Input
Amino acid sequence: MGNGVPIQVLGTSFAIQTDESPEYVEKLVNYVKTKIEILQKSLDTKDSMRILVIAAVLIADELHKEREKRPSSSENIDELEGITENILAKLDRALDAEN
Output
């Protein structure tokens, strides 16, 4: 594991052990902080744990929606197989035309 990257969220400071760059971790932390700030303004609670859990659920929701937009691995494989078969058929026709 790489170096510890210090972070501070909702008044709590700690370090995350990661192989990612400090800049990348900072980008992620800033994203989480933005979600937290939005929630703090819109929710009628000061409960940090509740805010963090809701932020985590919202971020997980975004992740799952993005994943659903992409074709699954099996769909990618089927598409690649189709493209490959098409290319092979064209090569066969081209080779047959030469003979």
